[in-house]
Amino acid sequence: MLITLDEIETPAPVVDLDVLERNVARMAAAARERGVHLRPHAKTHKTAAIGRLQIAAGAHGLCVAKVGEAEAFADAGFDDLFVAYPIVGADKARRLLALADRARLMVGVDSVEGAASLAGVFSAAGRTLDVRLKIDVGLHRVGVAPERALELAERVAAMAGLRLRGVFTHAGQAYGEPTPEGVAAVAGDEGRILVETGARLRAAGIPVEDVSVGSTPTARQALRVDGVTECRPGNYVFNDGSQVALGTCGPEDCALTLVATVVSVPAADRAVVDAGSKTLSSDPLRPREGGYGQVRGRATRLSRLSEEHGVMAVAPGESFRVGERVRILPNHACVVSNLHDRLLAVRGDSVEAEWPVIARGRVQ
Ligand SMILES: Cc1ncc(COP(=O)(O)O)c(C=O)c1O
Predict the structure, then answer these.
(1) Model confidence over 201-216: pLDDT tens digits?
(2) d(CA 334, ligand 1 centre) in Å
(3) Which of 3, 258, 353, 361 is most buried as measured by Cβ atoms within 10 A of its Cβ?
């Protein structure tokens, strides 16, 4: 039986299907226009139904961060998965070996030790695992510096049990850029540095087939750089308050909101909803501070969270009443899905489906 948004229990994450479908289609078209493969990062939604929409729109497989996410998506029938994370250890390698029987797999590496731990398990089984080298283009998190990439690539390429397929990066530093021009500069660097690194490896005889970039703020520009073969944005499918603040999209492009109920109005300038950090996460707004969520259609923001309370700093001229429902745009959509068992897919005011978050909590 179809229910409406007014009838759902709160707090609840809802996905606006019209917006989601438009986001999926736009990114698919941007990649298709350039002949670049789109491999969306599924850590954002962790949901089979959304992954299927992305594949139906032309995505070439999915990207995940964890072996457990890869297992969850393989269980749901996805057969082309890139674990875009430096996977380390024989325990993980044994799970990947089992997974390789039912999916085309690729895995990230950024160290000799990590690569060797995968190579040991795969070569002992007489199998080969496809790997890509993670390159640091400025985030300074994981990834080998471009000038050290050749040395590492030569060592990885020589390991029995591994096949080095290419290079990948994530220009997450874009999230700290205060202006769209700054984000554009990061996107340009992301594509250029990665393509140059790939070319240097090729010149040394290493067959680099894949040059894979990917973050939502940089995706549309980075995928246009000549030589890029793949793009892996994740957040674009939902977008969120940070993407709006970065200038990546407008509020009308945000598909994921939290429906919450005002449970208390203790003062004219303070109202409290039933969505706290366990519903919205405590992730900050990027690239500049701005509380913990925006009330849709209002100027009011959440200024403070505890686990089950979201405290709204009521904007001048606005007011809320106990029992009223609001929709909150989260700062960071990717962490919100991981906090919920299911997402409600809505069209207009009607709930059309309940989607289980199949890879929720798969952090191993
Ligand atoms: C390796 C990697 N690839 C792709 C992405 C997707 O980036 P975004 O969430 O900006 O879409 C991420 C995000 O953290 C990532 O770590």
Answers:
(1) 999 999 999 999 999 9
(2) 10
(3) 258
